[in-house]
Structures are given as C-alpha cells and as structure tokens.
Amino acid sequence: MTPVYIDLSDYAGQEVFIRYRFGTDANTGGDGWYVDDVEIMDAVIYNSTACISSDQTDLVCAEAPQRGTIVDSQITIGTEDQNDDTALSVYPNPAGDFVEITLSAPKAENAEINVFDLTGQLLYSGKWNLTEGFNQQVIHLSRFMSGMYVVNIRSGESFYSKKFIKE
C-alpha cells in the first residue's frame, strides 16, 4: 500500500477535524474498513539534486522524484494501545497553566517524559524517577499555545501516551 501524505500546514494553529468517508454497495460484505498507523509529522520535503563523485567515477547526480524526499518524525499514533489506559492520567483536561501527570508504575525505575504538539515537535522533555505505585509530576504550560498535545512516558519496556488540551 502506498502512503498518502496530506499537507495541513495552511491550517496551523487552527482546530481541524478530519472526517473519513467510505461508500460501498449492498453486494460488499465483511468487517468494513480500518484507519491505522496514522502519523502526525512535521514533514520537510527536499526537492533537490544530490551528486557524488570519487576518484574512480565521474560526477553522478540524481534528482528527487515527483514531490521530493520526505523527512518525517518518529511519532506514530496507532489504533492499538500498548498499555492499560488507567495507569496514566493527565488532568485537568482541558488544562490551563499546568497539567498534573499521574502514573501507576509496576516497579521503581527511571523514565523519560516528553510532550509533543500535533506536528510532532518536542516541546518538553524531562527525567522522572518512578517509584513502585503512584507517581505524580506537574508540567507548567504557560509557554504552550492553546491546542492539543501528546504526553509520552517511556520507562524500561513500558510506553504510555495520553492526549490533552491546553486552553
């Protein structure tokens, strides 16, 4: 399957709703259709020529095909959650000047906490020393613009993710 890229940069800073429409006829059966592996990225498209040379060959150049080369982020939002949804909570949601992150950890370990905007830009990164059981941390949002954000927490083999809104 060929990936499809849709440029929403004209709507940056605005609230955007994405609707999927699917039509079929009465002769088609089955489960229906699924949207999976949606990636929100801050894409950079390079429309350029790359050249190489060596002492054994002449100069060789190639142009990027069609729209160019797309360089993207590493944030993927899938339809299957990896962990128990009750382990991580973010409140208040919607938030004002801060959010409180609570995580129920199965054991004491070090974690990394990151907050991304919906373009995939990292806006906050920090370390979190988790204890077994209930943990809480406050993140100040005064420098964040209004919008939707994703908080990711990675500790050992575990990964937790939640969305929140900053008013």
Question: Any idea what the CATH architecture of the domain at 88-166 is?
Answer: Sandwich
Outline the low-pLDDT stretches.
Answer: 77-83
For the largest sheet, list the strands in their spatial order: 8-7-10-11
**Shape summary:** extended
**Distance separating the two termini:** 38 Å
Q: What does this 3D model show about the protein?
A:
This protein has 167 residues and is mostly beta strands. It has a domain at 88-166: Immunoglobulin-like, CATH 2.60.40. The protein is built from no helices and 11 strands. Strands 8-7-10-11 form a 4-stranded antiparallel beta sheet, with no helix packed on it. Strands 5-6-9 form a 3-stranded antiparallel beta sheet, with no helix packed on it. A hairpin with a 7-residue loop joins strand 2 and strand 3.
Topology, please?
Blueprint: E1 44-46, E2 49-52, E3 60-63, E4 69-71, E5 88-91, E6 98-105, E7 109-117, E8 122-130, E9 133-140, E10 147-155, E11 158-166
Antiparallel strand pairs: 1-4, 2-3, 5-6, 6-9, 7-8, 7-10, 10-11
Quick overview:
The chain is mainly beta. The protein is built from no helices and eleven strands.
What key attributes describe this structure?
167 residues; single chain; Immunoglobulin-like; 11 strands; 4-stranded antiparallel β-sheet; extended; 3-stranded antiparallel β-sheet; mainly beta
